[in-house]
Amino acid sequence: MKRIIPTKTIILLLFIFYPAPTIFARKPELIVQAGHFGSARSVIFSPDGRLLASVDERTVKLWDATTGEELRTIGDNSDSVTAIAFSPDGKALASVAGNDKTIKLWDVISGRELRALKGHSSIVYSIAFSPDGRSLASLSVEALNLWDLTDGGNLTPKRAATGGPAGRVAFSPDSKVLASFAYHTVTLQDAVSGERIRTFPGGRFVVFSPDGKILASQDREDDRKVNLWDAQQDGKLLGTLAWPGAPPRSGILSTEIEVVAFSPDGKLLAMAGVDKTVKLWNVETRQVVGTLAGHSGLANSIAFSPEGRTLASGGWDKAIRMWDAATHREIRQMASHSALLGSLAFSPDGKTLAAVSHGLKLWDLTTGYLLRTLEGAASPIAFSPDGKLLASGGSDGLMLWDTASGKKLGTFKKGLPDIFRLTFSPTGKLLALDGGEDQVILWDVTARRVSRTFTNATSVSSSAFSADGKVIACKGNDGRTNIWNVATGVKVATINNQEVSAAAVALNSNGKLLAFAVDGIALYDITTGRKIRTLKEDNTSYYTAIAFSPDDKTLAIGSEDGTVKLWSLTTGEAIPASGELPEWINFDGKFAIKNVNGKSVAALNETGKINLIDALTKTELISLIALDEREWVVVAPDGLFDGTPRAWKRLAWRFNQNTFETAPIEAFFDEFYYPGLLQEVIAAIGGQRPRASASIADKDRRQPRLRLALADAPKNNEPSAARTVKLAVGIEAGPGVEARDLRLFRNGALIRVWRGDVLRGNQSVTVEANVTLVAGENQLTAYAFNRDNVKSADATLAVTGAATLKRPGTVRVLSIGVNSYANARYDLKFAVADARDFADTLKEQQQRLGLYESIEVTQLHDGQATKANILKALTELAAKSQPEDAVVIFFAGHGTASGQRFYLIPHDLGHMGERTLTDEFQMRAILDHSVSDLELEKVLEPLDAGQVVLVIDACNSGQALESEERRRGPMNSKGLAQLAYEKGMYVLTAAQSFQAAQEVSQLGHGLLTYALIEEGLRQRAADTEPRDGSVFLREWLDYATARVPEMQLDQMEKARGLGLNLSFKDEERGLPLARRSGQRPRVFYRRERETSSLLIARPAGS
Question: For the segment 97-113, what is each residue's pLDDT rounded down to a tens digit?
C-alpha cells in the first residue's frame, strides 16, 4: 500500500530541504564570502545551533555553523559594533554600534531591521536577552536598561544607575536574576523589581553556568584569574582558575582573560584573551584539560554550540575557528579572504583599473581578468598622466611602481609623513603629498626627493594643481585656501570660504578660478579674492570631487555615490548629461570614472567588491571581486561569472532575501560560467552585452544529496594498505529530483563518471567504484547535477594510504607541433621547433630533479600529427597512466573556436581552398577534421594520473565567418574551461593572428614557448612566488600569461619602427598601437588544488 504523506509535511520538507523559486521571487543577491575585515571580536551560536554570528570592528556576519558558509552581513554599520545577542527563539538578532547608542533588532531570515530601541545616552557595551524572551537588558556607562519586548513597540526603559566604566550583563537561566559588571563590581539584582540581591568584587565579564548555580567573573586584582561564585545561596567564592604561566612581556599580547564560556552541561569552562590559545578547564577539578592552538593572533572570543560538541573561537587574525570540544581538534576555519577596499583609479588609457585591497590589484579591462597584485601598496593611489607610473601612499611611505611590469621602483620615506592624499602634476614631474597635517609636500618624481613644502595655518583637507601645473591650491580645515606658485614657492593668494563646507577643490586651466564642493559649489576669483558665484542644488549625497573642463566653460562635480553632474560656468545652470562624460573627468578615490566605447563607466568601491556601472543611467554592468592575493571573480547582474575556481567557492547567491536559501555561484557553472566575461562586458559597452540564456532565479535548485563510504573501512582510522578499495556513493533526492553525470575525484583529479541520471526515478540509490589509492592523503570528492545542470554540494571522504602504497611515478609528455599542413596556405614556421624544445627541455629538467622514475616522451610533427594519430596517442597515454604519474600535453599549430567549443586543427585539416573561408561548409569541413575539446574530454576521461597539464599555443585561424568567436578567441573558449574543471587539470592556452604567427619570432620560437622555456626555466624568470629556486606548475603558467603580452607589445613597437603594421589580433590591425591590447594567454585552473604541486624545474645553480 502506498503511504500518503500529509500535505503540510510535504510543504515543510520542500521548504527546509529543497528551496525552490517562488512565484514572488525577488532578484537574487550576491554574497561575497570574504570573511571578516578585522578582528573577530565576538562569536555566538543561535539557540538551535544552526547559525553562528560574529562581529568585527564594523560588521555582523551570520554563518552556517555546520558548513562554515558565510550567509549574510547584518546591517551597514559605519561605527564600531560593541555587542550582539540572539533572541531565545533564534528569529531575531540584536546588535548595537558604538556611538550610535541604539539597539537594533534584526530579522534573521530576511536581514531586515525590525525595530530600534533608543534610550541610552552613552556607548552600550553589552546586551542580553532573557531566556524567556520577554526582556532585553542593555548596559552602558550611565545606565542598565531593561526593555519589555512584549510591549508591541512602546518600549520604556527601566534605569538603574551604575557609574564608572561599564562591562557585561547576563541573565540567569530562569530569567529571574540579572547580573552586571560595572566599576569593578558585579551586581546581582531581581530582573523584575530591580532590587539588589548581592554584589561581588570582579571585573570585565559575568557569565552564569547553565544551571544558574555558578557565576564566573574576572578577578578584580588579577585579570589573569577567573573567580567562580555561588550565585544562588550565600554568594561565597567557590574557587579561582588562574591562567597558567607567567604574564607575557608588555606590548606583545593582551595580559588578561577577556572572555569565558561554560559548556552546555556546565562541566567545562573555556577562556581566551591572554594569548593565541583557548584553554579549557574542568569546573569541578579546577584543572586545565585542553588547549586549543591555531590562531595566529590573539584569541579573544569563544562560544560553545548548544549541544556542546563544538566550540567556536575568534581572534585578531580575522579568522573564526571551529573546534571539536572533546578531541580539541580543529574542524574548520572561516578565514578572512579580503580586505577593506581602498582607493580606485583608472589608467589614463582606460585599459587598467587599480584598486587597493590586499595590496594593489590591477584589473586588465582589455583581457578581462586580474593582471597582478602589487604587494605592500596602500591607499591613496594615482597614475601618472602618461600611465607609466603608479604611486601609492599610506603609513609606509611613498611607493612608485612601473605599471607595465609591476616592478616596484622604490619606497621613499625620508622627509615624508603618512600619506593620506597624493596627486600628480599635469606634467607628471611632481607629486603633491598630503599627510592630513598642515603641509602639502611637492615631491620631485625624477630626482626622487622633496622639492618644496607649502604650509597652511591648519591641517590640509584637499589640494589641486591648475591644468598648466603652475599653481597649486591647498585647502585648510579653517575654510581658508592658499594658492601657491609651484616654481617659486610664493603664496599667490588666500581665499577665505566659510559658506560652503568643502571636501574638494579645483583650479581652472590658468589658475585664476577656484571652485569648492561638498554640499554646494562656490567659485572664487583668485586675483581679487571675491566670490563670483554659488551653485546650489538638492543633493542626497555629498560632492567629493570637482574638476574644470579644459576650456573652463564647464564644471564637473562627482558625488560619493558615483553620480556626476555638469554645470555651465557661462549660465550657472546644470547641463543634462547624455552619451559619454567629458574625457577630463577621472575622479580617483572612492569612485573613478572613465569613458569606454562612447559610454561613461564608474567604478564604485563597495564592501568586498568593485561595481562597474553606467555613470549616467546607474545601470550595473559587472562586479569585480579580488580574494586573497591571486584569486578573483567577476559577476554580472544576471549571474554570468568568470574567475579562478578557488574564488568561485567564496561567492553565493541568496534567493528571495532568505538567509537560508543560498546556492554557491559554482553550482551554476554549466550554464553561467562565461570565460572572458569582463573583457566582453567592457568591449560591448554601448552595445549588446553578454546575456544569460535564462534567469538564475528560475533554475531548479533542488539538489541530490551525496555521501561517500568505504565498503571495508580500516579500523580506528588507520591507513589503508589496500591498493584498490571499494567506494560506495550514496545518492538521495526528493521527488522529481535527478542526479546526473555523477563525478568522482581523487585529490582533485577525475577518476570516474556515471553518465545520465543515476537515480532513474528512485529517491535513493547507491553506486560503487573501485578506487586506486596512493600513499598518503587521498581526498575523495563526488558531486552530481540536477535536471537544470545545477551542481550539488560536494560529498567528501578522506582516506590515508599506507606508506607501503608508495609507487614510482612517470612523467609522460605528448608534444605535437604542426608547421606543414595538407593545405600549404596554412603552413606555420615555429610550431615544430616549439614542440620539440618544449618536450626536450621538460625531459631534461625532470631528469635533473629525479623525482620520477622515468620520463616518457612522444612527439608528433607535421604529417604525423593527423587527427587519428593524435587521438590514438592520447588513448594510449590514458591507458598506461597511473595515479603517481604526471601527464603533460603540448600542442602548437592552428586552433579555432566555434560557439562554446574549441578545436585543435591537425595536419589533415579537411580544407584545400583559400585560407579566408567563404562559406559555412568550408568551416564545417575544418571542424569535422579537427580535435574538439569534447573529444579531448572523452579520450582523457579514463586517464587516472595525479597531475595533468595541457598547453595550447594556437594560431587563431579559420574564423573569418564568425565575428562572435573572433572577438572571444580560443583563450575564452568555454570548452577548454570545462575540460579543466571537469577533468581536474590545468589548461594554458594562447593564440595570435596568422600574421603574427608568420612574422614574429623570439630566437626561432613562438612567444609562449620562449616565455615558458627560455625565460621561465633556463633564465629562472618563472621562479617568482616565492623566489625559492624552484619553479612549480602554477607559477610557471602564471609567469607566461603575464610575460607574453609584454613581449607582444615590444614586438609591435619594433615593427612600427620598421614601418610595419603588426597586430596579434586580426580585428586590431586598423587601431593605433596605443589602443591595441594583444592576446593575453589564459590559464584555466583545476577546481581543487592538488595535494602536492608539480615541480617543473629547479634551475641549475639553485
Answer: 877 788 999 999 999 99
